């Protein structure tokens, strides 16, 4: 039955069946042929999504879209450009900064990349940046959204690993998220200087806002992460309630401050966010059937035991797990990776006594790298579509970003205090 579970899943995936559907059908096959009881299916689906932390996902998706449509991204771009200044590589650095700030609002890599690419790619093209380079930088920077709190991936991980609370994971992702952003800035700046990107913008003298004017306009957007994270830290609201606060704050900014939203826009945002959230929750529900079937058969425990038995060297196992997750990230989405790999990696975590919060950060950084590593790079697909180029055109540029992000991953892997220091200081561990 264990072979049936994985072989049917991979066969369906190779046939082009959507991953969520493939996991659900593979779980169904095991339940049916293994005589595990068909009535367990509706129970598995319901228990898979009937978890309080998951309420935050659709609300954070809505919050991210509201901030995008309200013009916050545009004002943050203007502020970042004013902050960085008019120099070679300045717009690339500004794009990374904006992605990091928006990541503190939306928690979604593709949404972050789409919002920034829509605003930045035309400006970068006018300044002489190749479209493939711009798409690569923004796709990579957008992946920091799932590291910098609030993070949808962290919420899902906390559901699968109860030993890691959402507040602890949010606090743990702060320094690694900043490190990832800084690591991406180095190749973005160096490549820009080396190839002379941004020279056109320097020569044309394109109008730029003054620093204080740009800061004043962007202040409402900059306050959003402070309100969300500060409210959670002070105990004013839970992570799930923080998502609701973010929605109402975004509506206030769009309707009252910037006056860029109207009721038609709000209706469109509600519809679009409902569609996105429905897809995510459906994948979670179907993946829950797969996870329940695997755990009932004892498949995941057996896989975890096999992995532990490969070597007694803890470092070798950790690097092997990292490599496995990196390869998986190139082909699977974040939700699928969590539901496929976390169940059989949990025994490995417990065997070696790894901190589940630190491991959650490591796993999420691997998923983040996968979001912009071809062939199945969702962030890169989004930015390439906006830039009007093929994803293959980005490979020479995006590999630099992958290398930079890998350096940040290895640093956090071998210096766990970078992830565990803040949660321990705040008393979450």
TrEMBL record:
InterPro entries: DctM, TRAP_DctM. Pfam families: DctM. Residues 6-418 form the TRAP C4-dicarboxylate transport system permease DctM subunit domain. It is found in: Cell inner membrane. Keywords: Cell inner membrane, Cell membrane, Membrane, Transmembrane, Transmembrane helix, Transport. The chain crosses the membrane at residues 49-68, 89-111, 131-157, 169-191, 242-261, 316-345, 357-382, 394-415. It is a multi-pass membrane protein. Part of the tripartite ATP-independent periplasmic (TRAP) transport system. NCBIfam families: dctM. Belongs to the TRAP transporter large permease family. The complex comprises the extracytoplasmic solute receptor protein and the two transmembrane proteins. This is TRAP transporter large permease protein. It comes from Azospira oryzae.
């Amino acid at each position: 039955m264990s072979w049936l579970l994985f072989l049917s899943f991979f066969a369906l995936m190779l046939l082009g069946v959507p991953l969520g559907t493939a996991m659900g059908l593979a779980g169904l096959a095991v339940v049916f042929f293994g005589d595990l009881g068909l009535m367990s299916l509706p129970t598995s689906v319901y228990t898979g999504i009937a978890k309080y932390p998951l309420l935050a996902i659709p609300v954070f998706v809505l919050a991210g879209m509201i901030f995008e449509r309200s013009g916050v991204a545009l004002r943050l771009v203007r502020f970042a450009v004013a902050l960085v200044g008019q120099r070679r590589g300045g717009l690339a650095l500004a794009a990374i900064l904006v992605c990091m700030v928006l990541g503190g609002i939306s928690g979604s890599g593709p949404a972050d990349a789409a919002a920034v690419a829509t605003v930045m790619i035309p400006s970068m093209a006018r300044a002489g940046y190749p479209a493939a380079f711009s798409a690569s930088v923004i796709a990579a920077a957008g992946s920091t959204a799932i590291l910098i709190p609030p993070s949808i991936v962290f919420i899902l991980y906390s559901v699968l690993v109860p030993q890691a609370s959402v507040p602890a994971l949010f606090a743990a992702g702060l320094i690694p998220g900043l490190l990832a952003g800084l690591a991406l800035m180095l190749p973005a700046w160096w490549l820009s200087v080396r190839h002379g990107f941004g020279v056109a913008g320097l020569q044309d003298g394109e109008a730029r806002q003054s620093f204080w004017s740009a800061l004043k306009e962007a202040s409402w957007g900059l306050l959003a992460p402070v309100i969300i994270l500060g409210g959670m830290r002070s105990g004013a609201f839970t992570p799930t309630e923080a998502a609701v606060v973010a929605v109402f704050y975004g509506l206030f900014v769009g309707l009252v401050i910037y006056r860029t939203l109207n009721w038609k826009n709000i209706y469109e945002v509600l519809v679009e966010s409902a569609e996105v959230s429905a897809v995510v929750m459906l994948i979670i529900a179907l993946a829950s059937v797969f996870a329940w079937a695997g755990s009932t058969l004892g498949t995941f425990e057996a896989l975890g035991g096999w992995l532990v038995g490969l070597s007694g060297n803890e470092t070798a196992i950790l690097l092997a797990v990292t490599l496995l997750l990196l390869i998986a990230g190139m082909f699977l989405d974040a939700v699928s990776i969590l539901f496929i790999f976390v169940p059989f990696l949990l025994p490995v975590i417990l065997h070696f006594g790894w901190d589940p919060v630190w491991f959650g950060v490591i796993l999420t950084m691997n998923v983040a790298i996968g979001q912009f590593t071809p062939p199945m790079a969702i962030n890169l697909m989004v930015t390439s579509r906006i830039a009007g180029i093929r994803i293959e055109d980005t490979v020479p540029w995006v590999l630099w970003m992958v290398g930079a992000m890998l350096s940040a991953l290895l640093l956090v892997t071998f210096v766990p205090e970078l992830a565990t220091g803040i949660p321990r200081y705040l008393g979450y561990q």
